[in-house]
Amino acid sequence: QSHYTSSSSLMGSDVDNRLRSRATGGQGDTRWLISDWVTAVTRLDGSIERANVSLKGTLTENKQMEQRAILGTTQALEFSFWNERVLLIPALRTDWTSDQSLIVLPKAGALFSPVDWALFSVNGSRAYRPPSFEELYFDQGSTKGNPELNPEKAWSLDTQIKLGNSDYWIRGTIYALWIDNLILFLPTSAFLIQATDSKSARSYGYEGEAYFTLAKYVSLRGGYTYTETQFEDTGEALPAKSPHSAFGRLSWKQAFSTL
Q: What is the torsion angle, in degrees rounded to the nearest 10, for the CA atoms of residue 71, residue 109, residue 107 and residue 175?
């Protein structure tokens, strides 16, 4: 839920804008063993997204209900070699959104585990993201959504190494993203910032993450990410995009009963 209020109107009437969004969905997959080294995988996922938009201004009041359906299916083949220590996965995903056109997204991945405690992987894919309801409809006074937005589309590539076991592990990743149409909130006038179909951009960086089991029920997890994001044509950094992010989490888990 997003909520914006203002009582500073020149007309003496409050501004009260609300957006409530919710989604209901599910997913499932099936696997068929074609041979000892080939497995076919089919995944299906879908959701119904709804948003109630209420815009109450100084002179007008507008209420609307927006709804869209999202359906995706992935067809993949898993080729395993060397006692499943090498895995090659070409895939094709189809995404359909009720307010957008059908799109086909190729994907491919490879995994190599020479020993039980080491895993190397590389992945490449075509990515797609429809604009969120907040980007489309929400109004915060000087910051507004845009119902005319187009989806974001991108190519992504990453490579990763993971060392350790289920109790202790470290992971390092290098990644790159080439975005065709980036949605950004940018100034469109001296008084308005609006969601905009922006220029092409590229994003690249690296991240590290570690996990440690400290005791029987206690674990520690933390990570750091560095990201450089630039417009393709000028090389300028994107606004309001911090290159650094980090997190840490101390967890305690215990099963009180077993069925």
A: 100
* Residue 134 backbone dihedrals phi, psi, to 5 degrees: -65, -40
CB 65 within 8 A of CB 116: no
Q: Is residue 146 pLDDT above 80, yes or no?
A: yes
From the CB of residue 95, how many other CB atoms can be counted at a distance below 10 Å?
22
- Record the pTM: 0.78
The side-by-side arrangement of strands in the sheet containing 193-197 is: 143-144, 193-197, 183-187
Q: What number of residues does the chain have? A: 259
Q: For the chain, first and last CA: distance in Å?
A: 37
Place of tokens 């409809």: 137
Gyration radius of the chain's alpha carbons: 23
User: What is the tens place of the pLDDT at every residue in 67-113?
Assistant: 899 999 999 999 999 998 999 999 999 999 988 889 999 999 999 99
Report phi then psi at 258, rounded to 5. -130, 125
